[in-house]
């Protein structure tokens, strides 16, 4: 039923904790491709199933069949490596506007380099990754000038990365920095507030009392 109804899907959300299945003949009828892990594509713009273990082979199928993809969210995909995300960036980069990656432990700065090179229309980026550091954020900031939303929960990111955001991401409207960004300080936030004139929402963890400061008050504080 889903396969017949949603033939123009442009958003893909994968979470290894989900287990959703559809009759295989619907998938093969539309795309003719099957991933060994149970990920199937509907058509040039659609995805049918989100199974329990999505890795590089699954993303290859998405890249092959969903060429109009605009919104990609990858969560807890233990089998996904830089190779798989690079394939997606190459195949769907021209249409991708939003990318979110959470707890995909094998992804590194190499994936962000691919996003910067192929996804120049990107407007939203959300990262919660252990092995991402300043190098990856610097690359994205310099190449993805249309970014409007940036959300980071990366333990190895420092003020240097935010200074690059303040210089290059002039369209930024929302910045969210979460509790694992231990090496950020007011210096980085000041750079963003000074450079990103369109910024109107700022969410930053206040480590003194473990609360968030947000919106105009926070922006005015750092300008």
From TrEMBL:
<dbReference type="GO" id="GO:0031146">
    <property type="term" value="P:SCF-dependent proteasomal ubiquitin-dependent protein catabolic process"/>
</dbReference>
<dbReference type="InterPro" id="IPR032675">
    <property type="entry name" value="LRR_dom_sf"/>
</dbReference>
<dbReference type="Pfam" id="PF13516">
    <property type="entry name" value="LRR_6"/>
</dbReference>
<dbReference type="InterPro" id="IPR001611">
    <property type="entry name" value="Leu-rich_rpt"/>
</dbReference>
<protein>
    <submittedName>
        <fullName>Uncharacterized protein</fullName>
    </submittedName>
</protein>
<dbReference type="GO" id="GO:0019005">
    <property type="term" value="C:SCF ubiquitin ligase complex"/>
</dbReference>
<dbReference type="InterPro" id="IPR006553">
    <property type="entry name" value="Leu-rich_rpt_Cys-con_subtyp"/>
</dbReference>
